[in-house]
Design goal:
Elements: H1 2-23, H2 44-60, H3 69-82, H4 89-116, H5 130-176, H6 183-196, H7 202-221, H8 226-250, H9 257-274, H10 279-326, H11 336-356, H12 361-408, H13 416-431, H14 438-487, H15 496-508, H16 517-532, H17 539-554, H18 560-589, H19 596-627
Helix pairs in contact: 2-9, 3-4, 3-5, 5-6, 5-7, 8-9, 8-10, 9-10, 10-11, 10-12, 11-12, 12-13, 12-14, 14-15, 14-16, 15-17, 17-19, 18-19
């Protein structure tokens, strides 16, 4: 940069000497091709060097070693969206190299797994994940857009070169023409248009600038007011460049270093195009502007140096996360919920990892490899679990299809009770099936439910006819109850035999609606009790009749057999207990000695034995009555 400044000063001195010779009447001939553009401290070579330094430094600030595939894909998309295709080519190639490293490792693992599973070496074909296809499609999109941008840039540069040549033609007309009142206005307009025109092809840039500066010098040299205009113009340029110096110095207070560098580059561009300043101010001005620029560059250097400690701290945090993740590598579970809960914890750790930021470059690759290795190991175990679960679901699907076929085979059955029990058992079996494939679960359940519902709907329709018969039975039983109540009023006609006949009639009538069962049973018991209250029965014959009557009433119960069996079992137990007591008491009598007190106790035991034997006889008679039913 100092060398460029020195050359700029020498070339400017040559131009001044030529002008001085013309003013003193000395003829001077300068070929336009030999004239050089006036160099300024912000010339293009200097500016390009700064741009290059900025780009290099920016690239050094991004460490893609720490990026996983998803982050690399996002970084590539961000670059494509920024439309900065030409300058970003180096970054994109670095991103692609890192991504291909992941891709090739995954391909190699897939190939090993394929061979381990018995696959043919030549038959292996790796398709990759959707994320891979998206990445390479995005990379191809970048290449296409970059090529198009290069072509567009070249077309734009050619167009800019044509526009600058047109300006040069116009400028030559002003230089070779006569002085007018509009000459200065025209020359300022030309300067403004020249500044606004963008870059031109590199091989034309130097000649265009040389021609432009030479023509501008000739324009001022050829005018009688050259020195006055030039001094005024240089003073104005000085004011403008001093203003740029102030802006550059103010950037030192800006916290965002990237924005400061961007603004500084814009100031360099303006500094370059403003034009020369008075020679005595040139060096001091340049030193001030350079000092302000160096302050920004030093600040940027300090920032990147300070990041080394931050990167080291980030490394320590990531090491702790790896230790935390290491506890998950042997995790096993049998329930989906447990896997999902652990997955949430893993993803939370991943989120912490991604929020930490970069680490020192020399540690980035290894620590990144360790973390994502553990991360992938957990999900490999999880995938294995779900693979086995899919096999279980497939077997359950086959069992579900058998249950559906079984249920559908009973659609037209009219054996309501047996088929109902069978379908209820099928429904229990369905509940115990276990998980089914998500894709088929609703459809399978829909078929099974439809088969069961169809049968139960048919049974429900058939029950409507049955309910009608139950209503008729209810009316018939109410009539018998009324007959029993009316018969009880005729004292001459009542008899145990007549009552038994009416009860038998009641029992022979079929079922009544479930909602009326308790009501009709209550009416029946009230009618029978009213009849019994008019019967003249005494002693044992009354007990036997009432027992027999109770058994007759039980015949109306749908569970009469079970009730009779239970009653018989209870009587047999009573008999057994009484007989055991009788045997015990008789044994005890043998131990009583002959005395007045002993005789009294002996009489009490004999009385108990006698009562027990009578009770046994009664119970045995009840057993014989039960056998009649």
């Amino acid at each position: 940069m100092d060398k460029d400044k020195e050359m700029s000063g020498k070339e400017d001195k040559v131009t001044e000497d030529l002008v001085d010779n013309q003013e003193s009447g000395v003829e001077a001939h300068v070929d336009e091709k030999e004239e050089k553009p006036e160099k300024t401290p912000g010339n293009e070579a200097n500016h390009d060097a700064e741009d290059s330094e900025e780009e290099d430094h920016e690239e050094e600030g991004v460490d893609y070693n720490n990026f996983d595939k998803a982050q690399l894909l996002k970084a590539l998309k961000d670059i494509v969206n920024q439309q900065n295709f030409i300058k970003s080519d180096g970054l994109v190639q670095e991103i692609k190299n890192h991504y291909e490293e992941y891709y090739n490792k995954e391909k190699e693992l897939a190939h090993k797994q394929y061979v381990a599973d018995g696959g043919d070496e030549e038959g292996f074909e790796y398709r990759g994940a959707d994320e891979d296809r998206e990445f390479f499609a995005t990379y191809q999109q970048f290449k296409d857009k970059r090529h198009e941008q290069i072509r567009e840039l070249e077309r734009s540069k050619e167009k800019n070169a044509q526009e600058k040549n047109e300006i040069l033609d116009r400028l030559r007309g002003l230089v070779d023409g006569e002085e007018t009142t509009n000459s200065i206005k025209d020359i300022k307009e030309i300067q403004e248009k020249w500044k606004k025109i963008g870059p031109v092809p590199h091989n034309q840039n130097k000649n265009l600038w040389a021609s432009y500066n030479a023509l501008m010098d000739r324009f001022y040299d050829n005018r009688s007011i050259y020195f006055e205009l030039k001094e005024l113009d240089r003073k104005k340029n000085l004011e403008s460049k001093l203003e740029l110096c102030e802006k550059a110095e103010a950037l030192a207070a800006q916290e965002e270093i990237k924005e400061a560098i961007k603004s500084l580059n814009e100031l360099h561009e303006d500094f370059k195009h403003i034009g020369p300043v008075p020679r005595e101010e040139q060096e001091a001005l340049w030193q001030r502007f350079k000092g302000a620029s160096d302050a920004i560059y030093n600040k940027r250097k300090e920032y990147y140096d300070s990041q080394k400690e931050v990167f080291k701290a980030n490394l320590d945090v990531k090491v702790k996360l790896i230790e935390k993740l290491d506890t998950f590598k042997a995790f096993k579970a049998e329930k989906i919920r447990d896997w999902n809960n652990k997955t949430k914890e893993i993803l939370a750790i991943q989120k912490e990892w991604e929020a930490i930021g970069p680490v020192p470059r020399e540690s980035g690759r290894e620590i990144n490899k360790t973390f994502w290795g553990l991360f992938k190991q957990f999900f490999q175990h999880k995938n294995q679990f779900f693979k086995e679960l899919d096999e279980i679901r497939h077997k359950n699907k086959e069992q579900a299809e058998k249950l559906i076929a079984d249920a559908e085979s009973h659609l037209e059955s009219t054996d309501w009770k047996e088929t109902s029990n069978h379908l209820i058992q099928l429904q229990k079996d369905w509940k115990e099936l276990g998980p089914l494939p998500e894709k088929f679960r609703d459809n399978l359940y829909g078929k099974f439910k439809k088969a069961c519902d169809t049968f139960f709907d048919n049974r429900r329709n058939a029950n409507k006819e049955t309910n009608k018969a139950f209503e008729e039975n209810l009316a018939a039983k109410e009539a018998v109850c009324e007959q029993i109540r009316e018969s009880a009023k005729d004292k001459d006609a009542i008899s145990p035999e007549h009552l038994e006949t009416l009860i038998q009639q009641f029992n022979e009538i079929g079922f009544v609606p479930r909602k009326n069962m308790k009501e009709i049973a209550s009416k029946f018991n009230e009618a029978v009790n009213a009849y019994l209250s008019h019967l003249d029965l005494e002693g044992e014959s009354k007990d036997d009749f009432l027992f027999r009557l109770n058994l007759n009433k039980l015949q109306a119960d749908p569970n009469s057999n079970r009730v009779l069996n239970k009653k018989e079992h209870g009587i047999r137990k009573q008999i057994s207990d009484l007989e055991n007591n009788i045997t015990l008491w008789r044994n005890n009598l043998e131990f009583f000695a002959s005395s007045k007190t002993a005789d009294k106790l002996k009489d009490q035991f004999e009385e108990k034995i006698d009562k027990a034997e009578q009770e046994v006889d009664k119970l045995k008679k009840k057993l014989s009555i039960i056998r009649e039913f």
